[in-house]
Amino acid sequence: MVPKVALTFHGNGDPALGTEILDLVEKAGAKVSVLAVGTWLVAHPEMATRVLKGGHDLGNHTMHHKPMRKLGAADARREIGDCAAVLRRATNSQGRWFRASGTQQTTPLIRSSAAAAGYAACVSYDVDGLDWQDPPAATVVKAVLDGVRPGSIVSLHLGHPVTVKALPQILSGLSAKHLAPVTLSELLQ
């Protein structure tokens, strides 16, 4: 059995870039997980259908992408719950996965807010692709391929052109390392 890794994407930004990324991973025979910002789905509801049509996971990355560790209980619950409601309207499901915005590590408050919205667990990542900083593509490729190992969860972003440039090399590098990119649902089943 080939070891697996999950490529996860923050769902936000230009939908044309998101579509291009999904096309690239599908052409490579890979599956990914998109953790969508609620305001992005409100502005681009067609992206929910596009993600699911490709066989990918679609989950919750809060409504407004606020720094979750700085929010009080009511605001944290609202950020998670409002995005869950957007997902349900768009897809009839709130998705299985929640990732907090603005932090790699959750707190008891974030975890209880996610649980109150129906998310059994919060998902994080162990590899930061650094694409959110818009560095050269080689930096993103190196960050992913140097950090990835079997079972890794990689954090990338749909709304950055550098991700589109780096993705073909990331996918070929994963293949060379005998690592299969899969959804969170497959990795964490």
Task: Describe the protein in words.
With 189 residues, the protein is of the alpha/beta class. The protein has a single domain, classed as Alpha-Beta Barrel (TIM Barrel). The chain is 46% helix and 14% strand. The protein has eight helices and six strands. The chain has helices spanning 15-27, 38-43, 46-53, 73-91, 108-116, 137-147, 161-176, 184-187, and strands spanning 4-11, 33-36, 57-60, 127-128, 153-157, 180-182. Strands 1, 2, 3, 4, 5 and 6 form a six-stranded parallel β-sheet that branches. Helix 1 runs parallel beside helix 7 (161-176), helix 4 (73-91) runs parallel beside helix 5 and helix 6 (137-147) packs parallel to helix 7 (161-176). It is globular. This is NodB homology domain-containing protein. Pfam families: Polysacc_deac_1. InterPro entries: Glyco_hydro/deAcase_b/a-brl (IPR011330), NODB_dom (IPR002509), Polysacc_deacetylase_ArnD (IPR050248). Residues 3-182 form the NodB homology domain.
Largest sheet: 6 strands, parallel
How far is it from the N-terminal to the C-terminal residue, by CA?
15 Å
Instruction: Name the overall outline.
Output: globular
Succession of helices and strands: EHEHHEHHEHEHEH
